[in-house]
Amino acid sequence: MVSVQDSHSNPNISCSSYSQTPYYYYTPPPSSARITRSMGRSMRTIRSNLYKSREEMPNYTENLTDADIDLHLGELAKKSSSDSKCVASDISEILEISRTFSDFSAYSSDISGELQRLASIPDPGPIGGASPKPEQEPCTGFLERETFSTEIIESISPEDLQPTVKLCVDGLQSASIAVQRSAAAKLRFLAKNRADNRVLIGESGAVPALIPLLRCSDAVTQEHAVTAILNLSLHENNKSLITHAGAVKSLIYVLKTGTETSKQNSACALLSLALVEEYKLSIGAAGAIPPLVSLMINGSNRGKKDAITTLYKLCSVKLNKERAVCAGAVRPLVGLVGEHGTGLEEKALVVLSSLAGIDIGRDAIVEEGGIPALVETIEDGSDKRKEFAVVTLLQLCIGSVRNRGLLVREGGIPPLVALSQNGTAKAKHKAETLLGYLREPRQEASSSSP
Question: Cα angle at 161 between 160 and 162, to 5 degrees?
Fold first, then answer.
């Protein structure tokens, strides 16, 4: 585990500029290439006479066809009345976030689903008059068999649960990969829907036994192990068990090397741990942010969603904002703002707005063509997207005369005027404030410029 103290060992992150060379596993596809926008490209409304003659550049578009498979966060809100006030605070925060990340509002554990059921047909048992196995064999046989349906696993009676869990925990330490894989799969499904199972499994010592399997060379075993960790992390007390057992670095290893499903579930496990405020810095210090950026670029549509959501949670801490900018997060986020029909635009806007809260974040957003993308959003985005876009533009322009000039040259005034008249209450207020800055005489504004 990386402690919070470790995260401060180098408080001044070495990032001479936001565009430093990305980490070795940052391999952007063609879609993440620098988005080139000429000034004035986004305007579809009346332009200033000074800029009517600006040439149009070809539109940069990319239509992703991945099916939207939404991650749901409802289970995190299904806390009993006995939970602590701290937990209630986390739930409140998640529900607040869900207004932005709306399709994460009904969280269900084991988000990978059953890609491969343990089996749909019960084991027929011994044939004919076959002699019974020795006493110890049924235990080994239980772990070696892959013909149990998940319904059978999940419906084990309370009196049988404890010996079953112990059997699985012992199986995690077997020399047989097949037994390890089966044990991890059964723990995964036992922890899938039942909160009481998560408590018992966490107290049984399963977490330290699962962590080595996160680095297993067998992809299926690794997937079962990371999903089991995700499911267990939904119980509040298990979060500290998982973190203090050193799981964070192994989860990051899965983010770098796992299958697409394993990467998604690893990102979600980190998200679950990051709901604890004190873990955010240590997760960032352990190196989680660069592979999350890589998943946002190279992952499936759902992988992108998982990565963006986890980045959003981690970047509530300033040091992690800096890490995200240095890892190259801004470029793909700006690109996603302009991609329609993916379900990612609003989420990307939220993270951009967060990164605009620091100096290097604002510089990176402007450099990567963020102002034209934000103007386009104000022109034709949904009410919520327009709201996020104008908030981000205000952050970019409030202390920079240069950025105000870029916004005016992009033709931002007409859509801002329209927004100040027809937007939501918050959008109207922000648009009016921004228009006030744009109307300031240049000489007066320059006196407040850094």
Answer: 100
